[in-house]
Amino acid sequence: MTTIGFIGLGAMGMGMARSLLRAGFTVRGFDVVPAAIANLEEAGGVGASSVAEAAVDADLLVVMVLNAEQVASVLFGEDGAAARLAAGAVVMVCSTVPPAFARQTAQRLAEMGLEMLDAPVSGGTVRAADGELSVMASGSAAAFARAEAVLAAMAANVYRLGDECGQGSSMKMINQLLAGVHIASAAEAVAFAAKAGMDLQTVYDVICNSAGGSWMFQNRVPHMLADDYTPHSAVDIWIKDLGIVLDTAKAEKFPLPLTAAAYQLYLAASAQGWGSIDDAGVVKVYEMMGNIGIGDK
Length: 297
What we know:
CATH architecture of the largest domain: 3-Layer(aba) Sandwich
CATH superfamily of the largest domain: NAD(P)-binding Rossmann-like Domain
Largest sheet: 9 strands, mixed
CATH class of the largest domain: Alpha Beta
Structural class: alpha/beta
Radius of gyration: 20 Å
């Protein structure tokens, strides 16, 4: 396997594509943003003018777009990528999508003679660029075998979660539940500390070395303290991802009160016009409610 098609060259996707290039793969990529295609070409990849062109002659196609609707469009829409792949090719769907959608997509691809790996990723832009993501994957043994070298190039941890597509997306859903709640709770704690007049750098140092800390607290709070909301993962991403969690829970008639509260917080931030900033910007909701500032503390 030498030629990899890649659709979705955003902050995460570009890092993943560069990791594949470093591993010696030929990467033919497409993105709706022309500058992203130019960046891939500068890194040694091959730019494509459409999703179909990205898929032609590819042994494996990585799809790293925003949501389920975009996955369906690039694979099965007019001049879609799936129809351009050779029989037996592997489609690796790395986007965060509902488990039911992953199962349905795998079935559609199977009817076209294609394999699928349900392979959502976690780790952020830095780990994507370093080829050190965690991949939560499910699919057939044949799909895993064909994708082994690609997974090794992009990830430090590959978790095989079963033979049925949908299991990978279920695991990502649980990860996103925790990650989204952790960011929201970190924002709440830091804002409360600011309201109490505490030195926030000291708060950060203490919590990072105490039982109340989390990876998200350690990673996102510095953005808040620096008042730097350059988007690495935007507020609106959590409206999508926690929406998937809540919709799935609703179908199962399972209550998720903490997730629902966090979802409302991200929704409030987006309603104030902060949807496209870094997700640490959810703290701005607390700044507004408490009449406080975080970055100047």
